[in-house]
Structure formats: C-alpha cells, structure tokens
Prior knowledge:
heterodimer, A: mainly alpha, MetI-like fold, 2 domains, 9 helices, about 80% helix, globular, B: alpha/beta, Rossmann fold, 6-stranded mixed β-sheet, 4-stranded antiparallel β-sheet, 7 helices, 10 strands, about 40% helix, about 25% strand
Amino acid sequence: MKLLRRLFFSASSIAIFLIIWHILAWLDNQSRPVVIVYPLDVFENLFNSFLEPDFRGFLIQEEIYSSLKRLFFGFVLALAIALPLGLLMGYSSIAMSSTKPIVEILRPIPPLAWVPVFLALFGNSFGPVMIVFIGIFFPVLLGVIFGVRNVPPELVDASKTLGARPMKIFSKVIFPSTVPYLMNGIYIGLGVGWMCIVAAEMLGVIGGGLGYRLIESATTGRYDSMYACIIMLGILGFLTTELARISSIKVREWMGMGQE
Amino acid sequence: MDGHGAGIELRDLTKIFRKDWREVVAVESLTFRVEPEEFVCMLGPSGCGKTTVLRMVAGLERPTRGSVFIDQKEVNSPSPEVGMVFQEFALFPWRTVRKNIAFGLEIKKVPPEKISLLTSEYVQLVGLEGFEDAHPKELSGGMKQRVGIARALANDPRVLLMDEPFGSIDAQTRNLMQRELLRIWESARKTVLFVTHSVDEAVFLADRIVVLTARPAKVREVIDVPIPRPRDRTSPEFIGIRVKVLEELQEEFEKTGVLERQAVAKAGSG
C-alpha cells in the first residue's frame, strides 16, 4: 500500500511537470523564435535518435558511448591516483604536511575552470578525460583521507596486540575501514564528473559525445534534439550516481558495516 | 593451547601525562608480580589509571619510568605473547566471527586449513557455534565479548590482559560470562591480569586482588582470595573478603570524592 502511494505521487509529479512544460511550450509557440519545444516532440526525437543518424550522421548511442568512455577513463585515472595518495596523506603526517598546502589551494578551484587549460594542454581527445579526472579526483581523495583519519584507534591497538606490524595494520585494518568513505567519495565524484564531461565536450572535443551533440544541436537551431540530449544526460547522470550509491550501500552491507 | 602462562612483573612502573603545561601523574611507582597461570584482578576507583597500567603491560603505551617484565623479558612493544581483551570489544566490523578469531593466525601465516581448524575449536570453546559467519553488529554485547576472548586466545598468548571486559554487558549476562571465563581459564591455563571496578567481580574471579589507590595509581593492598572455585557469592567466606576489599576501596572512593569536590569548588571559585 505504501509503495503504491509512493508510486502514485511520483507519477503525478512527473505528469504535472510535463503538463507545465507543455503549457510553457504552447505559450512560447505563439511568437517566433520558438525556444521551448513541446515535450512530445522532444521524446519523439529522443526515441528516433536511437534509430536514425542525426544531421552529422551519428546515432545517440554512439554519443553516449563516447561520453561514458571518457567518464570511465577519467574515473579510473582519478581512483588510481587519489586512492594511494589519500591513504598516504591520511596515514603519514609528513606526507600530509608536505602535500596539504598544494591540495588546499587546488581543491577550491571549480573543476570547470580547468576546461580551457586541459583542452590546450592535452588536446581535444584526451583533455576532456583529464577534466573528468580532476572532477572525480578531489572528492575521492578527501573521502580516503577522512576515512584513514577516522579509523577507530582501538582497532589499531587490537591488531597490534594480535601481532600486526605497520604493513599489516595498514592492509588489514586501515584500508578496509577506509572503504566505506572511499565509496562515498566515488558517489560524490561521479556527480561532479558528469558536469565536467558535458562542459568539456561543449567546449571542444574530438570523437563526439552528448555534450558535443547538445551544443551542435543548439547552434544549428535543432532544439528538439537539444532537449533530447539534456534529458538523456539527466537519465545517465541519475543512473550512474544511483549505481554508485547502491554499490556503496551493498559494499557496506557486505562488509558488515551498515547502519546499526 | 600449548603456550602456558608466563609470569608478569611490574617494577616501579610510572606514567606521567603532559597536558598543556601541567603534568598529570597517572601511575606512580607501581610494583607487583603476577605468578604464571595466576588470575589477578586489579581493582580501583574509576579513572584511577588501571587502563593505563594494562596498556603499558601490553606494550601499547611506554612507561615514563620503570618497566614491565614478562618471563624476565622487558616489554618494549606489543607482542602476540600478550593478548588483550577490550572493554568496547574492538572487533573488526567487516570481519565475520570466524575471520575475527582468525586475525592473529593470519598475521602469523598459519596455513589456511589449520586456521579453519583452530577457529572452529575456539568458536566451540566460547560457545558461538552457529554464529561463525555473523558480523559483529549482529551479535549481542555478551556474544561480542566471547569473540573478543576467542580472538585473543586463538593467538595462543602466554598472558591475557582484560580491560573491564564485562563492563558494558548487562548484569545477568555478566555473571554468566564470569563463570564462562573461569571455565576457559581453567582449560587454557593462561596468566590473567583483569581490570575491574566491581568488587563482586574481583572476589568471584581472582586468586589475588591488587587494590589500587585513587589517582595516581599505587598499590594500596594485595588481598588473597583463598576460596575454592566455583565460588558461592552468598557464602560467609565470600562476603567476608568482599567486606575487607570494600573497606580498602571505600577510603579511596572517599578520597576521589574529596578530590572531585575540591575540583568542583575550585572551578566554581575560579
């Protein structure tokens, strides 16, 4: 019964959203130029773009693939550097005090500020990957550092009385208790990563991508295709962060560290 | 279980903590011995530094002065020879009961087949059959501490240190755990140094009770408990020793009370 009620409210809020959209589109359609496209036309375009190539000759799934590939490589690269660096910074006070100033200066810079720099530096094919990298890097790094700092000291003591030396304390106590914080960092990082990928693709990219399709559609006045891209970005962003959120919960459960 | 109990000797053990510009003497010139395979309880008012003493014996904390010897060997760092059971259990939450018990054995690089044999043996010893694959959060306080005890014993230490292990367990389970602990101690033959602030617990468990003074911790009195086990809490001998220990402690409790009142008065006027 509760589920049914929840479904009813979710469905009605979507319906209301579409109705308001439709009314706004109708108002906008009374005069030129038309910027707001009818929702039905947008969904038709979205559906068709899986079947028919657009004016540049690309199917939307090809663009999705390009964007996801960039997100994936940026993510792997960010993880590969942020995880060991975070463990080191959290564990060793020398590593912390020598890297903290740099991290603290770089961290507040909005990831999008790096877009022109990285495009110039790494070119239009690898640059966008680097922008995703920077977006995911800091949330993961901070998550890991926080995790290491929050290892319960009594667990470290217990492992010492059981004969663990520093290397074993690190691999058997500190690292596992950091995992939930790492997963949380990934969850936040992926959200930021999506923003970065779209911005990077809009500003210039080789090999297509949803952001590129979005800006191309907009500059050539194909607004139905533009809105279709926006909706696709919303769906993909939701799915990836949801995937990260659920796997974060699953990992916690699997490790026996879920909420008490 | 072949690592038989070792003797413990505390010699002039002193710990001074520096807090801002003040020095706090937590433990002062503590000297006593625990014989091999003996069960000794350290009893003292809350906050008197008992835990600090135990941490120094475990090698988790360095004494400011004096030393701890286990079988004539000075303790400089934690070692698998000296097991510890913690008040708040300190179990690894991501490990199952079996994997918690196996922790020390994994460190020692015991072969996996032998680990699974040994963990089953210790699961049985502490009566946790059927919970091998449960995670700590699924267990009650008493069960968690059974895992804590099994984890320490599986490593086959020669000395077992217990820091108010039943302090956060409800009263009924506590009595049961005390009987269980004696049963395990009698079969494992380890030397046990057990910290508590419960007189009843100390008289029920110990061969000897070391009564500590209020901060800084010093030996006030060592009391023998020559009652055969299992002990009856209502027997005249039991009550007799209880009264004796209580009298010793009472003065210390009063002293802490006076200190606390002085501190409150000071804080109030300042």
